[in-house]
Amino acid sequence: xxxxxxxxxxxxxxxxxxxFTRLLPFVLFPEGKETPPYVKYLGKVLPFAIIAMLMVYCxxxxxxxxxxxxxxxxxxxxxxxxLHLWKKNTLLSIGVGTVLYMLLVQFVFIT
Length: 111
Description:
Layout: H1 3-28, H2 37-59, H3 71-87, H4 90-108
Helix pairs in contact: 3-4
């Protein structure tokens, strides 16, 4: 198969999958129909579960016995917690925490 044809097929497939994943919520939960209780429940608990999962993943390799002793991670996690309790915006909390952590490890706690 030609490389250009293969690339076009991959792009078309990805576009179709993206389209159908965007369409699926409108098909499953049409306007005017009551949202199922389990979907409301997931909408309430998933942001906290996602943040907890990201924290475990990000902190699993942190060394508390070597410089910088986990300080950038601690500062970024504290910022995420405070910001999330204040603004209750998951995307903002994760974004600010990520940017703060990267600034700390790149410019402050240089190893």
